[in-house]
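Q: Could you fold this chain for me?
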Amino acid sequence: MSRINTNIESIRALGRMTQNQSKLSTSLERLSTGLRINRGKDDPAGLIASETLRAELSGIKQAMANSQRVINVLSVAEAALGEVSSLMLDLRGLITAMSNEDALTPDEVNADQLQVDSIIESIKRIANTSEFGGRRLLDGSLGYTVSGVHTSQIANMQLFGVRLPDNGANVPVTVRVTQSAQVAQLAVLFSGGSLSAAKTIALKGNLGAEVLSFASGMTVSQVVDSINYNTTLTGVSAVVSGTSSLILYSTDYGSKEFVSVEALTGDFGLDAGGTVGIVTQGQSDVDYGQNVGALLNGQTAKADGLNLVLRTTALDLEMKLTEDLATQLTSASFTVTGGGAMFQISPFITGAGQVNIGIPSIIPSDLGDAVDGFLHDIKSGGTYDASVRQNKSDAEAIVNKAILQIATLRGRLGAFQKNSVETNINSLQVAYENVAASESVIRDTDMAEETSKLTLYQILLQSNLQVLGLANQQPAQVLSLLQGV
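A: Sure. Below is the predicted structure, expressed as structure tokens.
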């Protein structure tokens, strides 16, 4: 320890002081920024993991904002549809009021028809002016575009959701009828083509029941006329087949439809051969209709009469087949060429993170169907002008159909918002919390731990200064060796 050119103790103390000074600076930086990782050298592996999690957090946050914007869009559409629904209910009441013709003056009927026209125009205005961010919502702009739909096969269709390929390819849809739709039907035979005695029957159908009495000697044609006179009350019609056969059938298709005949007085019908085609007194006979059965792109659709419903992620639709298609084991096809509304509600831009919904047009010329008619047909001068006596029931059927379409659309939008969008926000919020917690563990400073380190490095640095001072004083002791020289 007698060398003075190289002070090893001082060098060692200086090195330790430099290290502690660097650690103290790092600790001060972490405490001032609140971040454990301020640059790559602080924790290279941790930085990579942290940046990956931060990117995921950014996507989750934007997905929540996207979902909230979707709710805003749907809320605007729902508000407009709610107003249309109120107008439709008023319209339904007006149709009923106008049917009370003998209690109204012609001027009152005309005034009611004027109000009908005004309501239809208001619905058209709402459909054409409901917008969000400059984009129309209810005029069909967000509906799916299709080609190849023949009204001789498909009377009406509403597309609520179609998964369209990212490459813009079309989606073909094939409707294959596997079970023909049928009306309820009963055949009754009459020997000689007329009634041999007075008879009374109870005739029942899906709309109601009536007791009908027939006089002796009435022809089959007269019986048919009597039954058809009550069709609107019972839902049962009749036709003559040949010269002596009476066929009763329901006016609509499906398993809910039925025809029931109970012979109250006398046997209803008589076959010379015995019991075929006869309802014996005190007995009844009944037959039920049959729903159409069909596959939509190979998947079994839920059927109700001529109506089909399919609810899948790839294809969500409702349609009504025509009698021509539904009563034959055949098929029809059409193509979805585009359209619809696509919303990105996931942090990841994939098909699974996108949801699709179609918002069909509610313009009066689109409400209704090709079979019953459309809403604009009940305006003054229209095919089913509601002010005309014989059009009242047709106008009511059209309005009821339109009310159901609006209600179905509101329900679909509500279900989409509640089950797809709002639940997505809830799940994203949980994901955001968990990912943020994981990222915080990696990147953020533990203030309590870092404060302890700061105190340690401060004490060590002060100690280093003291030691360095002592190490620098030690070479001066060599002077004592020179005192005796």
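A (continued): Residues 224 and 288 are 20 Å apart (CA to CA).
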